[in-house]
Amino acid sequence: MARTGRHRLRRVAIAVLLLAPAAGLLWVPLYAGAGPRLAGTPFFFWYQLAWVPGSGLCLLAAYALTRERPH
User: Fold this and answer.
1) Does residue 43 fall inside a structural domain?
2) Among 21, 46, 49, 61, which lies 20 to 30 A Cα-Cα from 69?
3) Confidence class of residue 2 from pLDDT cuts 50, 70 and 90?
4) Cβ distance 33 to 43 under 8 Å?
5) Is residue 71 part of a domain?
6) Which domain holds residue 27?
7) What are 20-33's pLDDT values in tens digits?
8) Domain assignment present for 35
């Protein structure tokens, strides 16, 4: 029974990691402003650009969770 619970928790974690970049970028009112600025760049642009490596990290973590570990 504990094994099933762990598998379910792992699947939920993978789903959250895969949906986070889409949700973060599709919720436009969250980042549709100019401030705060970072090095003169409006928030709208650097927020989207920050998701590029962020999405890669989310995908890497989700992939790592899909790997079977030897017992």
Assistant:
1) yes
2) 21
3) low
4) yes
5) no
6) 2-66
7) 999 999 998 888 88
8) yes
